[in-house]
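pinned: reference chain
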Amino acid sequence: MPRYFIEVAYKGTHYSGFQVQQNAITIQSVVEAALQILYRQPLQLTCSSRTDAGVHALQNFYHVDTDLPLDKKLYNLNALLPNDVVIKNIAQVKDHVHARFSGEAREYKYFITQNKNPFLEETAWRYAFALDVTILNECAAVLFNYNDFTSFSKKHTQVNNFNCHIMLSQWIQENGCLVYHVKANRFLRGMVRGLVGTMLLAGRGNISVLDFRKIIEAKDCTKANFSTPAHGLFLVKVTYPKTCFS
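pinned: its structure tokens
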């Protein structure tokens, strides 16, 4: 049976996350509902990255196995979806390719605005404190020296290990916002928000870069700051090997 990848983008403000949940409206639930209306049969999707409630994505993926010609009715499918969810592409992939486990890397950006801006209220965190961007980038560079990020994984996470390979970590300016841009082979639950919240403490002068190192080395999530709100976070890209696609 053919396997398809469904590429989606969404504003996550009004959703309880990406993956389907019981008694909750999620991105998966509205996409599956649109598919069922169009094809008059249920289709169960498998998700790539499980973004939390309120988190946005410029690119995320599902895969589904079906004999239906999904890639022929992209316009019709989008017409059935809410305005804050769009299917960008549907492509057939090789049968063994998995939306979650075949991914080589994922990239996130966290947006911060230091001024009141009504157009960014739902997509950037308004953070009025003065920040030392040099210190923020020193902290960002520290991450390349570590693989174990236990301190930046929320409790009760069911994973075999807490190791991540950081490929990119930097603070940049983008569209009038201060943005943390990070890329890794995998991310732990709450990891990006924990990193941002803890680095901001250093940027404000509340902790030092050495303190930030000690938090990583403690392997204790109670040492990190996870208070960063969801609405500034974007999943921007999921990378797969080119050989995945038919």
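why pinned: The helical segments are 27-39, 74-79, 133-142, 191-203, 209-218. The first helix runs from residue 27 to 39.
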